[in-house]
Amino acid sequence: MSKECAICHKSVAYGNAISHSHRRSNRRWEPNLRRVRIVVNGAPKRAYVCTRCLRSGKVQRAI
Questions:
Q1: Would you give the distance in Å from CA 31 to the centre of its chain?
Q2: For a Cys-Cys bond, which of 25, 27, 60, 62 suits 37, CB 3.0-4.6 Å?
């Protein structure tokens, strides 16, 4: 599974975790994805969608 939203294409972001002593190590921020049934071209389809797209109404859920 790729960590990418099917609607807005939000994906993993990379950066540094910085400790109290200021030592750096690599880390990643992963998008909050949910596997939902959405309507695509009039047909229901399962896709991974981020919760921001679900909350803002960019996706029509298939029931």
A1: 4
A2: 62
Closest CA to 35 of 24, 25, 44: 44
pLDDT per residue over 29-62, tens digit each?
999 999 999 999 999 999 999 999 999 999 999 9
How many residues appear in the chain? 63
Q: Is 24 left (phi over 0), alpha (psi -120 to 50) or beta?
A: beta
Domains of the chain: which residue ranges? 1-63
In the CATH scheme, what architecture does the domain 1-63 have? Roll (2.30)
Residue 1 reports pLDDT greater than 80: no
